[in-house]
Design a protein that fits this description.
The chain is α/β, with parallel strands linked by helices and 337 residues long. The protein has one domain (40-89, 115-333): UDP-N-acetylmuramoyl-L-alanine:D-glutamate ligase (3-Layer(aba) Sandwich), CATH 3.40.1190.20. Helices cover 33% and strands 19% of the residues. It has helices at 40-51, 65-77, 121-125, 147-160, 179-190, 200-205, 230-238, 279-293, 297-311, 324-333, and strands spanning 8-11, 15-20, 33-38, 55-58, 61-62, 86-87, 93-97, 107-110, 135-138, 165-168, 195-199, 214-215, 225-226, 244-248, 254-258, 263-266. It has an 8-stranded mixed beta sheet, with helices on both faces. It has a 4-stranded mixed beta sheet with strand order 3-2-7-8. It has a two-stranded parallel ribbon with strand order 5-6. Strand 10, helix 5 (179-190) and strand 11 form a beta-alpha-beta unit.
Length: 337
């Protein structure tokens, strides 16, 4: 068996995250922010690295101090940054978040002219996708050109090299000019994917045909309310190239739906919530670790649930991802696998 240089390469958005230090304060009354890093693919790359995997991030930053902030953090974490181009004339993305647990987390994205949306096919060609055991792609990268075609090209290169592709459905309604565009584009991309991970709302969003099906909650990080038949949406996803669809349900745990119709339900963990942002990315990192170790679906999701459960008790995202030993100790304290 040929040895690979990387365990996982993640593709998509990256940002500086400014999180309220005044836990519980309404957004308009925030006095201080903590500076962290974020963006789903960045979070997953860091989470995977802390668990012991060799990870690389395929994103872009602006020629600015924020980009240097991100690259400095990633270098210290040991995440490969060789595939991160600097885009002159674009800005590194930013996110500002209020924290009002347990359920209110007002969120503002600053992604106009953001560097990671400027990723090109040429950038992807410079990345060693064939040298990775897995490619993970955030669906937000499909929202605009040139990052959309670059993402499809990355998936094509992975398929040619026999590298499985995992898509994080990552539906952010305000990043799409029309929610139906998310569905059309993501459905096409799913045909390149071996694995898909998302919430029920995100899975429903892949099948939206009528904008009336979506109710946007103002400035909330939780997914929009989406009407539809979740069972039919799951079946539709499994009619694409996806071999396994993983549904994240927060404290309720997670489930794996397979093409043969079987379902594996995995219980979650009860913890005191501080900040839910990034929990799904921590889950993905844990799940990917188990998948690449050859674990069964139950054990993969149990580790994912633990990583997400730990993260929601923390202030931020990537900065607080657990190590493998921390995750295992948490699981053992909660009854084991």
């Amino acid at each position: 068996m040929t040895m690979k240089t990387y365990d996982v390469i993640t593709y998509g958005r990256s940002s500086i995250d400014l999180y309220s230090n005044n836990i519980g304060s309404p957004f308009e009354e925030i006095k201080e922010f903590g500076a962290f890093v974020g963006g789903s693919p960045l979070n997953i790359a860091v989470g995977a690295r802390r668990l012991g995997l060799k990870s690389a991030l395929l994103t872009a930053v602006g020629n600015d101090m924020v980009g240097k902030f991100l690259l400095n953090f990633l270098a210290k974490e040991g995440v490969e940054t060789a595939f991160i181009p600097v885009k002159d004339g674009a800005r590194t993305s930013a996110v500002i978040l209020g924290i009002e647990p347990p359920a209110k987390f007002p969120l503002v994205y600053y992604r106009d002219n953001c560097a990671d949306s400027k990723m090109t096919i040429d950038d992807v060609m410079k990345a060693d996708i064939a040298g990775s055991r897995l490619l993970e792609v955030s669906a937000t990268a499909l929202n605009i050109e040139p990052s959309r075609s670059a993402a499809f090209f990355a998936a094509e290169r992975a398929a040619e090299a026999g590298v499985p592709v995992l898509v994080d459905l990552d539906f952010r309604a305000d990043q799409w000019h029309d929610p139906r565009a998310y569905g059309v584009t993501t459905r096409a991309f799913l045909n390149y994917c071996t694995l898909a991970v998302g919430t029920e709302e995100e899975i429903l969003a892949t099948m939206v045909k009528d904008p009336a099906q979506i109710t946007i909650r103002n400035q909330q990080i939780s997914a929009p309310e989406i009407t539809g038949n979740i069972d039919e949406a799951i079946k539709a996803v499994l009619r694409t190239g996806v071999q396994a669809l993983v549904v994240k349900r927060g404290a309720k745990g997670s489930s794996v739906f397979l093409k043969d119709g079987s379902v594996i339900d995995v219980p979650g963990f009860t913890v005191e919530v501080v900040n839910v942002l990034g929990a799904g990315d921590a889950f993905a990192a844990g799940f990917i670790y188990g998948y690449l170790q050859g674990w069964d679906w139950y054990k993969c999701c149990r580790l994912g649930n633990a990583c997400g459960g730990i993260l929601v008790t923390k202030h931020g995202c990537a900065n607080f991802n657990p190590t493998y030993q921390e995750a295992i100790s948490f699981i053992e304290s909660q009854g084991g696998f």
